[in-house]
Amino acid sequence: MIDPCSEDATSVLSLEEAQARIKSALLPVAGTEIVVLKSALGRVLAQPVYSPVNIPHDRNAAMDGYALAARDIVPDQAFSLNLAGTSWAGRPFQGKMQPGQCIRIFTGAVLPERADTVIMQEHVQADGQTVHFPAHARPYRHVREIGEDMQQGACLISPPKKLTVADLGLLASAGIHEITVRRRLNIVFFSTGDELAAMGQALKPGKIYDSNRYILNGLLTGPGYSITDKGVIADDRDKLENSLIEAAENHDVIITTGGASVGEADFIKDILTSRGQVNFWKIAMKPGKPLIFGKIGHCYVFGLPGNPVSVIATFDQLVKPALQQLTGEPVAKPLRLTAICTSPLKKTPGRQEFQRGILTQNDNGELFVSSSGKQGSHLLGSISRANCYIVLPADCSGVEAGAPVVVEPFSLLLQDR
Ligand code: AMP
Ligand code: MG
Protein backbone atom coordinates (compact mmCIF):
# COMPACT_ATOMS: atom_id res chain seq x y z
CA MET A 1 0.00 0.00 0.00
CA ILE A 2 1.20 3.51 -0.71
CA ASP A 3 0.96 6.59 1.44
CA PRO A 4 -2.70 7.56 1.19
CA CYS A 5 -1.84 11.23 1.17
CA SER A 6 0.53 10.98 -1.77
CA GLU A 7 -0.35 12.38 -5.17
CA ASP A 8 -0.36 8.80 -6.48
CA ALA A 9 -3.35 7.93 -4.35
CA THR A 10 -5.60 10.41 -6.10
CA SER A 11 -4.35 10.32 -9.68
CA VAL A 12 -6.42 8.54 -12.32
CA LEU A 13 -4.98 5.13 -13.21
CA SER A 14 -5.47 3.21 -16.41
CA LEU A 15 -7.41 -0.01 -15.95
CA GLU A 16 -4.26 -2.03 -16.56
CA GLU A 17 -2.35 -0.06 -13.90
CA ALA A 18 -5.18 -0.55 -11.45
CA GLN A 19 -5.27 -4.30 -12.18
CA ALA A 20 -1.50 -4.49 -11.66
CA ARG A 21 -1.74 -2.56 -8.37
CA ILE A 22 -4.39 -4.92 -7.08
CA LYS A 23 -2.41 -7.96 -8.20
CA SER A 24 0.72 -6.91 -6.34
CA ALA A 25 -1.19 -5.92 -3.19
CA LEU A 26 -3.05 -9.22 -2.66
CA LEU A 27 -1.92 -12.26 -0.73
CA PRO A 28 -3.94 -15.46 -1.29
CA VAL A 29 -5.68 -16.81 1.82
CA ALA A 30 -3.62 -19.49 3.51
CA GLY A 31 -6.13 -21.71 5.31
CA THR A 32 -7.26 -25.08 3.98
CA GLU A 33 -10.02 -27.53 4.77
CA ILE A 34 -10.92 -31.09 3.87
CA VAL A 35 -14.13 -31.56 1.89
CA VAL A 36 -15.91 -34.59 0.51
CA LEU A 37 -15.78 -34.95 -3.25
CA LYS A 38 -19.46 -34.09 -3.71
CA SER A 39 -18.83 -30.66 -2.16
CA ALA A 40 -15.62 -29.95 -4.04
CA LEU A 41 -16.96 -28.53 -7.32
CA GLY A 42 -15.55 -25.03 -7.85
CA ARG A 43 -13.29 -25.22 -4.81
CA VAL A 44 -9.59 -24.51 -5.21
CA LEU A 45 -7.29 -27.47 -4.76
CA ALA A 46 -4.69 -26.90 -2.03
CA GLN A 47 -2.43 -29.94 -2.45
CA PRO A 48 -1.50 -32.26 -5.32
CA VAL A 49 -3.53 -35.45 -5.46
CA TYR A 50 -1.81 -38.74 -6.31
CA SER A 51 -3.57 -41.81 -7.60
CA PRO A 52 -3.60 -44.75 -5.18
CA VAL A 53 -4.52 -47.10 -8.04
CA ASN A 54 -3.95 -47.67 -11.72
CA ILE A 55 -6.76 -46.30 -13.90
CA PRO A 56 -7.99 -48.49 -15.53
CA HIS A 57 -7.36 -50.95 -12.74
CA ASP A 58 -7.72 -54.00 -15.02
CA ARG A 59 -7.14 -54.63 -18.68
CA ASN A 60 -10.64 -54.47 -20.10
CA ALA A 61 -12.68 -54.35 -23.29
CA ALA A 62 -13.49 -51.06 -25.05
CA MET A 63 -16.23 -52.72 -27.14
CA ASP A 64 -18.88 -55.39 -26.99
CA GLY A 65 -17.51 -58.37 -28.92
CA TYR A 66 -15.19 -61.33 -28.60
CA ALA A 67 -11.81 -61.41 -26.83
CA LEU A 68 -9.00 -63.54 -28.20
CA ALA A 69 -5.21 -63.78 -28.34
CA ALA A 70 -3.59 -61.95 -31.27
CA ARG A 71 -1.44 -65.00 -31.95
CA ASP A 72 -4.60 -67.03 -32.74
CA ILE A 73 -5.50 -64.68 -35.59
CA VAL A 74 -4.79 -66.22 -38.99
CA PRO A 75 -3.40 -63.33 -41.05
CA ASP A 76 -5.54 -62.30 -44.05
CA GLN A 77 -7.88 -65.26 -43.67
CA ALA A 78 -11.19 -65.89 -42.02
CA PHE A 79 -10.79 -68.20 -39.01
CA SER A 80 -12.82 -69.77 -36.21
CA LEU A 81 -12.26 -70.21 -32.47
CA ASN A 82 -14.13 -72.09 -29.76
CA LEU A 83 -16.23 -70.10 -27.31
CA ALA A 84 -14.96 -70.73 -23.77
CA GLY A 85 -17.33 -68.47 -21.81
CA THR A 86 -18.37 -64.90 -21.14
CA SER A 87 -16.82 -61.92 -19.33
CA TRP A 88 -19.36 -59.32 -18.15
CA ALA A 89 -18.61 -55.85 -16.81
CA GLY A 90 -18.13 -56.48 -13.08
CA ARG A 91 -18.27 -60.28 -13.49
CA PRO A 92 -15.01 -61.51 -15.05
CA PHE A 93 -14.71 -64.86 -16.86
CA GLN A 94 -13.60 -67.33 -14.20
CA GLY A 95 -11.97 -69.97 -16.36
CA LYS A 96 -8.74 -70.05 -18.33
CA MET A 97 -8.83 -69.14 -22.01
CA GLN A 98 -6.82 -71.82 -23.84
CA PRO A 99 -5.10 -71.53 -27.28
CA GLY A 100 -7.74 -71.75 -30.00
CA GLN A 101 -10.42 -70.31 -27.73
CA CYS A 102 -12.16 -66.96 -27.47
CA ILE A 103 -14.69 -65.52 -25.03
CA ARG A 104 -17.77 -63.37 -25.37
CA ILE A 105 -16.97 -59.99 -23.79
CA PHE A 106 -18.80 -56.74 -23.03
CA THR A 107 -17.53 -53.16 -22.72
CA GLY A 108 -15.68 -52.67 -19.43
CA ALA A 109 -15.32 -56.41 -18.76
CA VAL A 110 -11.91 -57.78 -17.73
CA LEU A 111 -9.90 -59.59 -20.41
CA PRO A 112 -8.75 -63.12 -19.47
CA GLU A 113 -5.00 -63.62 -19.11
CA ARG A 114 -4.13 -64.73 -22.65
CA ALA A 115 -6.45 -62.29 -24.39
CA ASP A 116 -5.05 -59.09 -25.89
CA THR A 117 -7.53 -58.31 -28.66
CA VAL A 118 -11.25 -57.60 -28.93
CA ILE A 119 -13.11 -58.00 -32.21
CA MET A 120 -16.35 -56.03 -32.45
CA GLN A 121 -19.48 -58.19 -32.36
CA GLU A 122 -20.66 -56.63 -35.65
CA HIS A 123 -17.73 -58.34 -37.45
CA VAL A 124 -18.24 -61.78 -35.95
CA GLN A 125 -20.64 -64.67 -36.56
CA ALA A 126 -21.35 -66.87 -33.58
CA ASP A 127 -22.60 -70.37 -34.36
CA GLY A 128 -23.23 -72.18 -31.07
CA GLN A 129 -19.83 -72.85 -29.51
CA THR A 130 -17.93 -71.83 -32.67
CA VAL A 131 -17.19 -68.23 -33.47
CA HIS A 132 -16.24 -67.15 -37.01
CA PHE A 133 -13.89 -64.18 -37.42
CA PRO A 134 -13.34 -62.26 -40.69
CA ALA A 135 -10.10 -62.02 -42.67
CA HIS A 136 -9.66 -58.39 -41.65
CA ALA A 137 -9.53 -59.11 -37.88
CA ARG A 138 -6.89 -56.73 -36.47
CA PRO A 139 -4.70 -57.67 -33.47
CA TYR A 140 -4.52 -55.66 -30.20
CA ARG A 141 -7.60 -53.55 -30.95
CA HIS A 142 -10.29 -52.30 -28.54
CA VAL A 143 -8.37 -53.06 -25.37
CA ARG A 144 -8.05 -50.59 -22.48
CA GLU A 145 -4.66 -51.09 -20.86
CA ILE A 146 -3.92 -50.99 -17.12
CA GLY A 147 -2.88 -47.46 -16.06
CA GLU A 148 -3.61 -46.06 -19.55
CA ASP A 149 -5.39 -43.02 -18.05
CA MET A 150 -3.34 -42.69 -14.85
CA GLN A 151 -0.58 -44.84 -13.37
CA GLN A 152 -0.67 -45.73 -9.69
CA GLY A 153 1.26 -43.01 -7.81
CA ALA A 154 0.95 -40.46 -10.65
CA CYS A 155 -0.24 -36.94 -9.91
CA LEU A 156 -3.91 -36.70 -10.87
CA ILE A 157 -4.32 -32.94 -10.34
CA SER A 158 -2.05 -30.30 -8.87
CA PRO A 159 -2.68 -26.74 -7.67
CA PRO A 160 -3.44 -24.11 -8.74
CA LYS A 161 -6.70 -25.60 -9.94
CA LYS A 162 -10.35 -24.74 -9.49
CA LEU A 163 -12.03 -28.12 -9.55
CA THR A 164 -14.24 -28.86 -12.54
CA VAL A 165 -16.83 -31.52 -13.20
CA ALA A 166 -14.20 -33.54 -15.11
CA ASP A 167 -11.77 -33.25 -12.15
CA LEU A 168 -14.40 -34.70 -9.81
CA GLY A 169 -14.93 -37.59 -12.23
CA LEU A 170 -11.17 -38.22 -12.40
CA LEU A 171 -10.76 -38.14 -8.61
CA ALA A 172 -13.74 -40.44 -8.20
CA SER A 173 -12.27 -42.89 -10.72
CA ALA A 174 -9.24 -43.16 -8.42
CA GLY A 175 -11.48 -43.78 -5.40
CA ILE A 176 -10.58 -40.47 -3.75
CA HIS A 177 -13.52 -39.20 -1.71
CA GLU A 178 -11.98 -36.42 0.37
CA ILE A 179 -9.60 -33.68 -0.73
CA THR A 180 -7.87 -30.64 0.74
CA VAL A 181 -9.01 -27.32 -0.67
CA ARG A 182 -8.38 -23.69 0.16
CA ARG A 183 -10.77 -22.23 2.65
CA ARG A 184 -13.61 -20.05 1.40
CA LEU A 185 -13.16 -16.31 1.18
CA ASN A 186 -15.31 -14.42 3.68
CA ILE A 187 -16.86 -11.55 1.79
CA VAL A 188 -19.25 -8.94 3.16
CA PHE A 189 -21.08 -6.43 0.99
CA PHE A 190 -23.43 -3.56 1.53
CA SER A 191 -25.01 -0.67 -0.33
CA THR A 192 -24.78 2.94 0.75
CA GLY A 193 -27.23 5.73 0.09
CA ASP A 194 -30.15 7.56 1.72
CA GLU A 195 -32.11 7.11 -1.50
CA LEU A 196 -32.29 3.32 -1.29
CA ALA A 197 -35.69 1.85 -0.50
CA ALA A 198 -36.31 -1.70 0.67
CA MET A 199 -38.02 -4.15 -1.63
CA GLY A 200 -41.77 -4.28 -0.99
CA GLN A 201 -42.03 -0.59 -0.05
CA ALA A 202 -43.79 1.80 -2.44
CA LEU A 203 -41.28 4.30 -3.82
CA LYS A 204 -41.52 7.72 -2.23
CA PRO A 205 -40.24 10.73 -4.20
CA GLY A 206 -36.46 10.58 -4.61
CA LYS A 207 -36.20 6.95 -3.59
CA ILE A 208 -34.99 4.05 -5.73
CA TYR A 209 -34.77 0.33 -5.13
CA ASP A 210 -31.40 -1.13 -4.30
CA SER A 211 -30.21 -3.01 -7.40
CA ASN A 212 -26.61 -3.38 -6.35
CA ARG A 213 -27.03 -5.87 -3.54
CA TYR A 214 -28.94 -8.17 -5.86
CA ILE A 215 -26.21 -7.81 -8.46
CA LEU A 216 -23.46 -8.51 -5.94
CA ASN A 217 -25.34 -11.37 -4.39
CA GLY A 218 -25.55 -12.95 -7.84
CA LEU A 219 -21.95 -12.21 -8.76
CA LEU A 220 -20.64 -13.61 -5.48
CA THR A 221 -22.78 -16.72 -5.27
CA GLY A 222 -20.43 -19.62 -5.77
CA PRO A 223 -18.62 -22.42 -4.03
CA GLY A 224 -15.48 -20.42 -3.18
CA TYR A 225 -17.13 -17.59 -1.28
CA SER A 226 -18.95 -17.30 1.99
CA ILE A 227 -20.99 -14.12 1.62
CA THR A 228 -22.73 -11.81 4.06
CA ASP A 229 -25.25 -9.21 2.91
CA LYS A 230 -25.16 -6.33 5.39
CA GLY A 231 -28.01 -4.45 3.78
CA VAL A 232 -28.13 -0.72 3.22
CA ILE A 233 -26.10 1.82 5.21
CA ALA A 234 -27.37 5.40 5.19
CA ASP A 235 -25.18 8.30 4.07
CA ASP A 236 -23.99 8.88 7.59
CA ARG A 237 -20.24 9.02 8.12
CA ASP A 238 -20.27 7.51 11.62
CA LYS A 239 -22.59 4.66 10.71
CA LEU A 240 -20.54 3.91 7.62
CA GLU A 241 -17.29 4.05 9.55
CA ASN A 242 -18.59 1.70 12.25
CA SER A 243 -19.92 -0.72 9.65
CA LEU A 244 -16.61 -0.79 7.78
CA ILE A 245 -14.50 -1.24 10.92
CA GLU A 246 -16.74 -3.99 12.24
CA ALA A 247 -16.89 -5.79 8.90
CA ALA A 248 -13.10 -5.63 8.51
CA GLU A 249 -12.58 -7.55 11.75
CA ASN A 250 -13.88 -10.89 10.52
CA HIS A 251 -13.89 -10.76 6.73
CA ASP A 252 -11.27 -11.07 4.01
CA VAL A 253 -12.99 -8.63 1.66
CA ILE A 254 -15.52 -5.81 1.96
CA ILE A 255 -17.37 -4.65 -1.14
CA THR A 256 -19.41 -1.48 -0.93
CA THR A 257 -21.35 0.32 -3.62
CA GLY A 258 -22.04 4.03 -3.80
CA GLY A 259 -20.47 6.83 -1.82
CA ALA A 260 -17.15 6.39 -3.59
CA SER A 261 -17.22 9.62 -5.57
CA VAL A 262 -16.66 13.26 -4.69
CA GLY A 263 -20.18 14.20 -3.59
CA GLU A 264 -20.77 15.53 -0.10
CA ALA A 265 -22.27 12.23 0.98
CA ASP A 266 -19.36 10.20 -0.39
CA PHE A 267 -17.47 9.08 2.69
CA ILE A 268 -15.81 5.80 1.77
CA LYS A 269 -12.50 7.32 0.72
CA ASP A 270 -12.33 9.59 3.79
CA ILE A 271 -12.95 6.68 6.11
CA LEU A 272 -10.38 4.47 4.42
CA THR A 273 -7.86 7.28 4.50
CA SER A 274 -8.27 7.83 8.25
CA ARG A 275 -8.91 4.24 9.43
CA GLY A 276 -7.04 2.17 6.83
CA GLN A 277 -5.19 2.69 3.60
CA VAL A 278 -6.17 3.81 0.11
CA ASN A 279 -4.21 2.20 -2.70
CA PHE A 280 -5.99 3.99 -5.51
CA TRP A 281 -9.22 5.82 -6.04
CA LYS A 282 -9.97 6.64 -9.63
CA ILE A 283 -9.53 4.69 -12.83
CA ALA A 284 -9.82 5.79 -16.44
CA MET A 285 -12.62 3.34 -17.15
CA LYS A 286 -16.19 3.91 -18.28
CA PRO A 287 -18.42 2.93 -16.68
CA GLY A 288 -16.73 2.98 -13.31
CA LYS A 289 -14.45 5.91 -12.74
CA PRO A 290 -14.72 6.26 -8.97
CA LEU A 291 -13.45 2.99 -7.58
CA ILE A 292 -11.55 2.78 -4.34
CA PHE A 293 -9.20 -0.03 -3.54
CA GLY A 294 -7.72 -0.11 -0.07
CA LYS A 295 -7.43 -1.98 3.17
CA ILE A 296 -8.62 -1.83 6.76
CA GLY A 297 -6.42 -4.02 8.94
CA HIS A 298 -6.05 -7.30 7.04
CA CYS A 299 -9.28 -6.82 5.11
CA TYR A 300 -9.26 -5.67 1.49
CA VAL A 301 -11.86 -3.08 0.58
CA PHE A 302 -13.39 -2.44 -2.83
CA GLY A 303 -15.50 0.70 -2.85
CA LEU A 304 -17.41 0.36 -6.11
CA PRO A 305 -19.39 3.13 -7.79
CA GLY A 306 -23.10 3.50 -7.11
CA ASN A 307 -24.44 3.10 -10.61
CA PRO A 308 -25.41 -0.54 -11.16
CA VAL A 309 -23.86 -0.96 -14.62
CA SER A 310 -20.59 0.37 -13.19
CA VAL A 311 -20.85 -2.19 -10.41
CA ILE A 312 -21.06 -5.07 -12.90
CA ALA A 313 -18.30 -3.75 -15.16
CA THR A 314 -15.85 -2.95 -12.36
CA PHE A 315 -16.60 -6.26 -10.69
CA ASP A 316 -15.80 -8.11 -13.93
CA GLN A 317 -12.63 -6.19 -14.69
CA LEU A 318 -11.15 -5.68 -11.22
CA VAL A 319 -12.91 -7.45 -8.37
CA LYS A 320 -13.39 -10.86 -9.96
CA PRO A 321 -9.70 -11.37 -10.80
CA ALA A 322 -8.81 -10.09 -7.33
CA LEU A 323 -11.10 -12.64 -5.67
CA GLN A 324 -9.68 -15.37 -7.88
CA GLN A 325 -6.18 -14.41 -6.80
CA LEU A 326 -7.20 -14.41 -3.13
CA THR A 327 -8.69 -17.90 -3.36
CA GLY A 328 -5.51 -19.13 -5.05
CA GLU A 329 -7.11 -20.11 -8.33
CA PRO A 330 -5.40 -19.28 -11.61
CA VAL A 331 -6.50 -15.89 -12.91
CA ALA A 332 -7.42 -16.27 -16.55
CA LYS A 333 -7.59 -13.26 -18.85
CA PRO A 334 -11.12 -12.87 -20.20
CA LEU A 335 -11.77 -14.18 -23.68
CA ARG A 336 -11.61 -11.35 -26.21
CA LEU A 337 -12.62 -11.65 -29.84
CA THR A 338 -12.82 -9.38 -32.84
CA ALA A 339 -16.25 -8.70 -34.33
CA ILE A 340 -17.64 -6.38 -36.98
CA CYS A 341 -19.61 -3.60 -35.36
CA THR A 342 -22.91 -3.14 -37.19
CA SER A 343 -23.97 0.04 -35.40
CA PRO A 344 -22.01 3.30 -35.05
CA LEU A 345 -20.69 3.87 -31.51
CA LYS A 346 -20.22 7.24 -29.87
CA LYS A 347 -17.17 7.77 -27.69
CA THR A 348 -15.07 10.65 -26.37
CA PRO A 349 -11.32 9.99 -26.07
CA GLY A 350 -10.00 9.72 -22.51
CA ARG A 351 -11.23 6.59 -20.78
CA GLN A 352 -11.26 2.93 -21.79
CA GLU A 353 -14.91 2.03 -22.33
CA PHE A 354 -16.87 -1.16 -21.83
CA GLN A 355 -19.97 -0.51 -23.90
CA ARG A 356 -22.67 -3.13 -23.82
CA GLY A 357 -23.32 -5.07 -27.02
CA ILE A 358 -25.16 -7.96 -28.59
CA LEU A 359 -22.79 -10.45 -30.18
CA THR A 360 -24.02 -12.78 -32.93
CA GLN A 361 -22.42 -15.28 -35.28
CA ASN A 362 -23.53 -16.03 -38.84
CA ASP A 363 -23.53 -19.44 -40.54
CA ASN A 364 -19.94 -18.88 -41.72
CA GLY A 365 -18.77 -18.35 -38.14
CA GLU A 366 -18.24 -14.58 -38.62
CA LEU A 367 -18.89 -12.45 -35.55
CA PHE A 368 -21.00 -9.31 -35.49
CA VAL A 369 -21.82 -6.97 -32.65
CA SER A 370 -24.30 -4.15 -32.24
CA SER A 371 -24.91 -1.72 -29.42
CA SER A 372 -27.51 -2.97 -26.95
CA GLY A 373 -28.95 0.53 -26.61
CA LYS A 374 -28.35 3.69 -24.59
CA GLN A 375 -25.15 3.42 -22.59
CA GLY A 376 -25.67 5.33 -19.34
CA SER A 377 -24.18 3.60 -16.29
CA HIS A 378 -27.59 3.80 -14.59
CA LEU A 379 -29.33 1.96 -17.45
CA LEU A 380 -29.70 -1.67 -16.48
CA GLY A 381 -32.01 -2.37 -19.43
CA SER A 382 -29.22 -2.18 -21.98
CA ILE A 383 -26.88 -4.46 -20.01
CA SER A 384 -29.75 -6.87 -19.41
CA ARG A 385 -30.25 -7.11 -23.19
CA ALA A 386 -26.50 -7.43 -23.85
CA ASN A 387 -24.29 -10.51 -23.96
CA CYS A 388 -20.88 -8.86 -24.27
CA TYR A 389 -18.79 -5.79 -23.65
CA ILE A 390 -17.51 -3.84 -26.62
CA VAL A 391 -14.05 -2.84 -25.41
CA LEU A 392 -12.99 0.54 -26.78
CA PRO A 393 -9.46 1.80 -26.05
CA ALA A 394 -8.97 5.12 -24.23
CA ASP A 395 -7.92 7.03 -27.35
CA CYS A 396 -10.83 5.82 -29.51
CA SER A 397 -13.11 8.62 -30.65
CA GLY A 398 -16.03 6.55 -31.88
CA VAL A 399 -16.64 3.64 -34.21
CA GLU A 400 -18.26 3.67 -37.64
CA ALA A 401 -20.63 0.91 -38.65
CA GLY A 402 -18.67 -1.86 -40.41
CA ALA A 403 -15.45 -1.38 -38.42
CA PRO A 404 -13.86 -4.23 -36.42
CA VAL A 405 -14.03 -3.93 -32.61
CA VAL A 406 -12.86 -6.01 -29.66
CA VAL A 407 -15.61 -7.78 -27.75
CA GLU A 408 -15.54 -9.60 -24.45
CA PRO A 409 -18.39 -12.10 -24.00
CA PHE A 410 -20.03 -11.86 -20.58
CA SER A 411 -19.26 -14.54 -18.08
CA LEU A 412 -21.78 -17.38 -18.26
CA LEU A 413 -23.47 -16.09 -15.16
CA LEU A 414 -24.30 -12.80 -16.83
CA GLN A 415 -25.24 -14.48 -20.11
CA ASP A 416 -27.66 -16.80 -18.39
CA ARG A 417 -29.65 -13.97 -16.91
P1 AMP B 1 -23.08 7.53 -5.61
O1 AMP B 1 -21.81 6.94 -6.07
O2 AMP B 1 -23.45 7.13 -4.22
O3 AMP B 1 -23.10 9.01 -5.80
O4 AMP B 1 -24.21 6.94 -6.55
C1 AMP B 1 -24.19 7.15 -7.94
C2 AMP B 1 -25.56 6.81 -8.54
O5 AMP B 1 -25.82 5.44 -8.31
C3 AMP B 1 -26.72 7.55 -7.93
O6 AMP B 1 -27.64 7.87 -8.95
C4 AMP B 1 -27.30 6.57 -6.97
O7 AMP B 1 -28.65 6.81 -6.68
C5 AMP B 1 -27.10 5.28 -7.70
N1 AMP B 1 -27.03 4.16 -6.76
C6 AMP B 1 -26.26 4.09 -5.66
N2 AMP B 1 -26.46 2.94 -5.01
C7 AMP B 1 -27.36 2.25 -5.75
C8 AMP B 1 -27.98 0.99 -5.57
N3 AMP B 1 -27.66 0.20 -4.55
N4 AMP B 1 -28.88 0.58 -6.50
C9 AMP B 1 -29.18 1.38 -7.55
N5 AMP B 1 -28.63 2.59 -7.76
C10 AMP B 1 -27.75 3.04 -6.86
MG1 MG C 1 -24.65 7.80 -2.77
Question: What's the layout of helices and strands?
Answer:
Elements: E1 12-13, H1 15-25, E2 32-36, E3 49-50, E4 60-61, E5 65-68, E6 79-87, E7 101-105, E8 117-120, E9 125-127, E10 130-133, E11 143-144, E12 155-157, H2 165-173, E13 178-182, E14 185-192, E15 196-197, E16 208-209, H3 212-220, E17 225-233, H4 237-249, E18 253-257, H5 268-275, E19 277-283, E20 285-286, E21 290-296, E22 299-304, H6 308-327, E23 337-341, E24 352-361, E25 367-371, H7 380-385, E26 388-392, E27 404-409, H8 412-415
Parallel strand pairs: 1-19, 6-7, 14-17, 14-18, 15-16, 18-22, 20-24, 23-25
Antiparallel strand pairs: 2-13, 3-12, 4-11, 5-7, 5-8, 6-10, 9-10, 19-21, 21-22, 23-27, 24-25, 24-26, 26-27
The structure holds adenosine monophosphate (AMP) and magnesium ion.
Q: What do these coordinates show?
A:
With 417 residues, the chain is of the alpha/beta class. The protein has 4 domains: 15-31 and 184-326, MoaB/Mog-like domain (Molybdenum Cofactor Biosythetic Enzyme, Chain A); 32-53 and 156-182, Molybdopterin biosynthesis moea protein, domain 2 (Alpha-Beta Complex); 60-144, Molybdopterin biosynthesis moea protein, domain 3 (Molybdopterin biosynthesis moeA protein, domain 3); 337-409, Beta Barrel (Beta-clip), CATH 2.40.340.10. The chain is 19% helix and 31% strand. The strands form 7 sheets. It has a 7-stranded mixed β-sheet, with helices on both faces. Strands 8-5-7-6-10-9 form a 6-stranded mixed β-sheet, with no helix packed on it. A 5-stranded mixed barrel has the order 23-25-24-26-27. Helix 1 (15-25) packs parallel to helix 6 and helix 3 (212-220) runs parallel beside helix 6. It is elongated and about 95 Å long. Bound molecules: adenosine monophosphate and magnesium ion.
